[in-house]
Amino acid sequence: MAEYDYDLFTIGIGSGGTRASRMSASYGARVAAAEERYYGGTCVNVGCVPKKLLVYASQFSEDFFNSKGFGWSVGDTQFDWAKLIANKNTEINRLNGIYERLLNNAGVKIFDGRARLVDPHTVAVNGEQFTSRYILVAVGGWPVIPDIPGKELAITSNEAFYLQSLPGRVIVVGGGYIAVEFAGIFNGLGASVTQLYRGPQFLRGFDDEVRGFLAEEMIKKGVDLRFNANIARIDKNEAGLRATLEDGSTLDADLIMYATGRAPLTQALGLEAAGVATDKKGAIIVDDYFKTNIDSVYAIGDVIDRVALTPVAIAEGMALSSNLFKGTNISMDYTNIPTAVFSQPNIGTCGLTEAQARECYGEIDIYRSSFTPMKHTLTGTTEKTLMKLIVDPASDRVVGFHMVGPDAGETTQGVGIAMKCGATKAQFDATVGIHPTAAEEFVTMREKVA
User: Fold this and answer.
1) In the list 43, 117, 399, 403, which could disulfide-bond 270, CB 3.0-4.6 Å?
2) Using the 8-state DSSP alphabet, how is residue 113 labeled?
3) Contact 258, 171 (CB under 8 A)
């Protein structure tokens, strides 16, 4: 008789938990997984996937306008928010079904319900208790709203995906990628958008030049972008909502959306009962192999608050399952992770920012190009594209890549492969460009920035 009911019990069926569970089962482990909300986690349900669909929807307004320069005459257009959300929901339901089938086909036992740790080897769910050799916590994170008067009148990105109608006036509070993306979405769909950020420049952690460049492009597109501004209180009135800022000024809106951060979803999870340590943010503390201070308990994904990206959680899940049930010794490499922000225009980035590179290498070489995309030579649109390479002159290695422009994410994925392989500027230069594309600029930049 087996010592435990399962070899692995995963709490949370998001991207990371699903991958870890499936791969562990494929290695012969007896696996169970529990989910209290929806399969696929944040990304599939209230994150990357529905957000990208809304970004696509919001870009059509510019496409209709730009088509005139290419000879098209577009008649009166009308946007139906309810239809977009209904179609989005259909797609998300389809993806939920795929996640469920993937786990079932792998032989993973699924429990629908909130699971919690009872002790280092026991999980309770739906009134039952099960023992497991290993327990994996992959519950992700949850958006938070600052504790201000009237906070209950605001929403987060979670609720934004299920609004009954498109608001006419929107205030987006926050300076991270979620705030930037939703400001673009609402603006593109026709709402009057004000984005507030308490600091002097948004997208902290991104390259400073990229941050400033995107801010200028968003302002050109009509977003009322206000830095060093924050809401002190929110009140409801006959016209909708009134936000009183910390400087005493007011803004009226139909919707106020906060995107000011996410917290690990570790409350009431039984971590204390199992003796699992967390940091002051509530994130689970793990070592290089995702093991907590308790030998039988592991954690991956947003709940460990390292790099909150879906592909990262998936990679962590693959490494963990291989280590536990194949006997490997894989640790996660977090360097040169390609990243995209689906702002309008998009951001693509990989490697170090200019400031980070100067701190790391001292002397660096910068190659930069800014231009009007070929598409807009006929549209009259003033949107610009920025491309930037950062090179360590001692090794000639490209250590930073940054782009602001259409489809930046698509371009960045390929460059990310090259940078992971340690590509040099000479190798970039020796690569034949694809003409005419914007991406060819990265293999034709020859002049260093003074």
Assistant:
1) 117
2) S
3) no
- What is the per-residue pLDDT for 239? 87
CB-based contact 94:100 (threshold 8 Å):
no
Domain 339-443 has CATH 3.30.390.30: yes
CA distance 22 to 103: 6
List, in sequence order, the alpha helices (H) in 67-206.
81-106, 157-160, 177-188
Q: By the 8 A CB rule, do 350 and 415 touch?
A: yes
d(CA 186, CA 166): 8
One-letter identity of residue 411: T
Half-sphere exposure of 61 toward its Cβ, with a 13 Å CA cutoff?
18
What pTM, to 2 d.p., does this model score? 0.96
Architecture of domain 6-142+263-326: 3-Layer(bba) Sandwich (3.50)
**pLDDT at residue 1 is higher than 90:** no
Q: In what order do the strands lie in the sheet with 155-156?
A: 155-156, 255-258, 169-173, 192-197, 224-227
How far, in Å, CA of 42 to CA of 225, rounded? Answer: 27
For the domain spanning 151-260, the CATH number is 3.50.50.60
What angle do helix axes 48-66 and 177-188 make, rounded to 10 degrees? 40
Give me the helix-helix angle, 208-220 and 177-188, nearest 10°.
Answer: 20
By the 10 Å C-beta count (0-12 exposed, 13-18 middle, 19+ buried), 387 is classed as buried
Assess whether the region 151-260 and the region 339-443 belong to the same CATH fold. no
The catalytic site residues sit at 435
Q: Give CA–CA dist 311/15, Å, rounded.
A: 8
Closest CA to 7 of 104, 101, 123: 123
pLDDT for res 450: 82
Question: What does the pLDDT look like over 305-351, one tens digit per residue?
Answer: 999 999 999 999 999 999 999 999 999 999 999 999 999 999 999 99
